[in-house]
Amino acid sequence: MKGSDPCSTSFCWPPASRSSSCRSATPPFATGSEGAAVSIDYSLAALVTVGLLIYLTYALLRPERF
Question: Is residue 60 classed as helix, strand or coil in its secondary structure?
Answer without folding.
Answer: helix
